[in-house]
Every structure is written in C-alpha cells, then in structure tokens.
Amino acid sequence: MRSASSGALCLLLVVVRFSFALGNPRPNQPAEAKARATSIADQVVHDLCGKRVALLGEPPMHGFGRTLEFKVEVARRLVEECHYNAFFIESGAYDFLNIQKALKSGQAVTVPMIAVAIGGLWATREVEPLIPFLLEKARGGVLVLGGLDDQLGRGTYAQRQMPADLVEYLQGDDKVQCLAILQKHTLWQYSSDAPYSPKDKALILGCLDRIERNVSLPRDGDAREYELAMIENLKRSFARDFKHDVPFGVDPNTQDFNDRDHSMYMNFQWLMSRLPADSKVIVWTAASHAAKDLSGVPGQEKWVPLGSYIRREFKDQAFVLGVSAYSGSYGMARQPVRPLAAAPANSLEGQAFVDGDSEIRYLNSSQIRKLGSILARPLGPDFKAANWGDVLDGLVIFREERPPLFSGK
User: Fold this and answer.
1) Do residues 392 and 291 make contact, with C-beta atoms less than 8 angstroms apart?
2) How crowded is the C-beta side of 103, counted as CA atoms within 13 Å?
3) Residues 79-102, buried b or exposed e (16+ Cβ, 10 A)?
4) Fewest beta carbons less than 10 Å away: which of 87, 134, 220, 252?
5) CA distances from 149 to 189, 192, 283 (A)
C-alpha cells in the first residue's frame, strides 16, 4: 500500500507516525504494557483536567471491554486528581433522582441501587469497581450523581417502585386507577392481542397531568422537585410515541434521536442548575451523543447530539473523548459476540498502527485535525470518512478490543 501511495499520502504517513509516537507495548509484556496504558491515561487526564465538562464517549454498541476499563480509570482520576464534582450518565434519570432524594433526606443508598441506576448496558465486571467509588463520593458530598436519559430501564426503581411513589399524590379511585395504568406500562403488561396503543399513552398522560397538579401544591419538604423532574421526563419520553408531526422529509429515527438528545440536554441543564458555580462534570455516554457536531458524518448529517448543545454552552471548556479499535471483537448484553473487521490501511485506525507494536494510541485535538478527512469508526463498527476533529477533541485507539465481561458470567 505504501509503495503505491501518492506524495500526499506519504506526507500523511509521516504526520501519523509522529502523531502516534506514544503507545503501549505487546501484550506479552504485561507490566510494561500496563505502564504504557497508564501513560496514555496520563495524557487524557492532562487534557481533561482543566475543562468544565468531560464527555467520555464510546462506540454506541456499548460492547468494548478495554474501553470500559479505560473510562473507569479516567473517571476516577478526574474526580480524585482534577476535582470533578459531578458524574452524569446516559442512563435513566428516574433512579438517580430517587438516589439524590434519598441522600438529601439521609436515607440509605446502597451499591445495588447505584448499579441498577447505571443499568444493564454497563452491568459489566469492568465497570463494577466504579460503583462503590461513586457511592463513597456521593455519600461524602464530593460527587453529585445524575442520569440523563428519559427512557425507562429494566429492573430499575423507575420500573418497579416509581408508579407507586407518584400516585401517592392522588386519592381514592384516581390513585387506584392511575397506579394500574402506570404499572401496566412500566411492567409492560401488554400482549399481542392488546398491544401498547395511543389510547394507553393518553391514559398515562392524563394520570401524569393529575399527579403533576398535586405535586405542584404546597407540601412539607422539597422532595417535590425530584418527582416533578420524573414527571417531566416521562412526558418527554411519551411524546416520542405515536408521533404524527414529524416534518416532511425528516427520517423518524433521526427525529427520535434529536428529541431524545434534546431531552438529555434538558436533564443536563436541570442538574447543572443545582450544582455550585464552576462545577466540573463527567458525562459518560456513547460518542454519538457526546459528539460536538455530526453534520459532516455520512448518514448522520441531520443528527443533533447532546454534545453539540454542551459545546455551544461551554465552548472550549467542554472536551469530547472518543474511543475506537483497529481490530478485535465486541459484545452487547444478551447478544452474541461480533467480530470487528481489521481496519484498512488508509483508515485512521489503520494508520495508527502502521509502525511499532504499541497496543494503545492517543490523538489530541491538533493531531486529529492534521489528518483531515479520513476513514474511521469511533461511531460504530463501520468506517466513515469525516473530519473527525469536528466531532471529537481526543481519540483513544486500541489495537485489539474485546467484549466486556458481563456481571454474573
């Protein structure tokens, strides 16, 4: 490939070799390899330490084990070394609102509560060490925990207990009927003969309206702000069901993505408004949500991600970290392991390992921009050509990824 390259490509190779001067040795040298991986983490933490918002992305398949290990290390160090005081994650807002309410009122919060709130996407051995760390810091008042998503998660407080808590604001038949209506949905008690329908949605929204009116009435304590936030999240989530107002020519999946990411930004703003001034926040999410701008990525030109709103608000004080891999495999919960095709030589990942035997590389913002438009896959298993400096501020690349080890296996 290199012998047939044009002068421009040769120049690109020189730039890439210089850019990727740092890396991690072969895996048959574990101690040295671990030290080199730590040196990459040192660079990432250095670049993030002075920022206000650190968006820690990952491919949207959520199936890379080494990526999760790396993100856990970076997140811990940002809290301990750089004084980040908030951790927001692309998980349901409801459980984290309940956790905040419990901490504020002095009630017990446990490791299983944090684990359930984080959810099944990250129910892995790699993420397990992060959970007691988050709990310790939250209990100590060092770290505020928050969920960004309005979707309902399986096995969560939101699914099992939230309906009963919300209907406490109702009385008599209203309370009984709305509990049944809400639980029917959160427990998904529909069938092929009686599927979820616009009628169900209307009944749910009617109950939420009645609850909201009563929550808004004066009441002892200030727990109401958490319950009102739960209701607002539920309303935004249900608003995406059975939509009839998608603009002509707009892909419904694109509209759903944009509506969901705007909802996540509204949760981000709500959480930020309750933090001290100059707080520093970790956002743990997929790179597709963390991205600064997706308008130059083929197939995603009309996507408006959470990260674009954060970038507009915080400018250079926000930093988007992406992760990719040259080769290996990945695995998502309850799904078979899938192979990653080896990166082609003319891709960013292919160029990353053109020389040397390193196992991990890191490109900072200026290094990414020097590469211009190039094939890469930080947003999924397929390669797309884009100016990745418009999407990310930093990119970690593993030579070989592996699936995470899911808890219980």
Assistant:
1) yes
2) 24
3) beebebbbbbbbbbbbbbbbbbbb
4) 220
5) 22, 28, 12
Number of H helices, E strands in the chain: 16, 10
Give the C-alpha separation, 260 to 282, whole Å.
19
271: nearest Cα among 80, 87, 83, 103 = 87
- Token digits for 87? 């951790």
Q: What's the burial of 211, exposed, middle or buried (CB within 10 Å: 0-12/13-18/19+)? A: buried
Residue ranges of the chain that CATH labels 3.40.50 = 11-153+255-401
* Cα torsion angle, 230, 62, 265, 298, sign: negative
Give pLDDT tens digits for 98-108: 999 999 999 99
Contacts of range 168-177, beta carbons closer than 8 Å, 24 or more positions apart: 169/211, 169/214, 169/215, 169/227, 170/210, 170/211, 170/214, 174/207, 174/210, 177/207
Q: Are 398 and 326 in contact (CB under 8 A)?
A: yes
The fold of 11-153+255-401 is: Rossmann fold (3.40.50)
For residue 97 the two structure tokens come to: 């609102």
Q: Which two tokens stand for residue 223?
A: 């727990």
- Residue 304: CB atoms within 10 A of its CB come to 19
Q: How far apart are CA 384 and CA 390, in angstroms?
A: 14
Coil/strand/helix, residue 171: coil
pLDDT in tens, 136-187: 999 999 999 999 999 999 999 999 999 999 999 999 999 999 999 999 999 9
pLDDT, residue 335, reads 86
CB proximity list for 179: less than 8 A, separation 6 or greater: 163, 164, 167
Angle, helix 172-186 to helix 198-215, in steps of 10 degrees: 130
Contacts of 276 (CB under 8 A, 6+ apart): 85
Residue 217 structure tokens: 């009435």
